Amino acid sequence: MTTEKYGTGADPRVTEALRQVVDPELGINIVDLGLVYGSEVRDGQVHVTMTMTTPACPMEELLMEMVHSAILRELSEARSVDVDLVWDPPWKPDMMSQAAKAQLGRT
């Protein structure tokens, strides 16, 4: 199962940039964790819709900074990054990729 079914679509360039953003607690990138619901690039503006594993995630601020940095570094046309942090649908472990599940011993 991929997270794209939960989102509005994904720009593959943004997805690849976000694979570089690794959750410091779990050691898995946020795409494989299923935290990214969608992304769009339009006229130099990048919009990302994502969530956290829990609303009380202590890494929220750090992850947001890492998302902005990765996109601005990897997409030369990106002039601004807007991250919409949503809680619906709530994140569930089944949203992780098979690789992430295997890394966490959840296969």
UniProtKB/TrEMBL annotation:
Pfam families xrefs: FeS_assembly_P
InterPro entries: Fe-S_Maturation_MIP18, FSCA_dom_sf, MIP18-like
Domain MIP18 family-like: start-end pairs: 13-83
Record-given protein name: Fe-S protein maturation auxiliary factor YitW
Gene this chain is encoded by: yitW
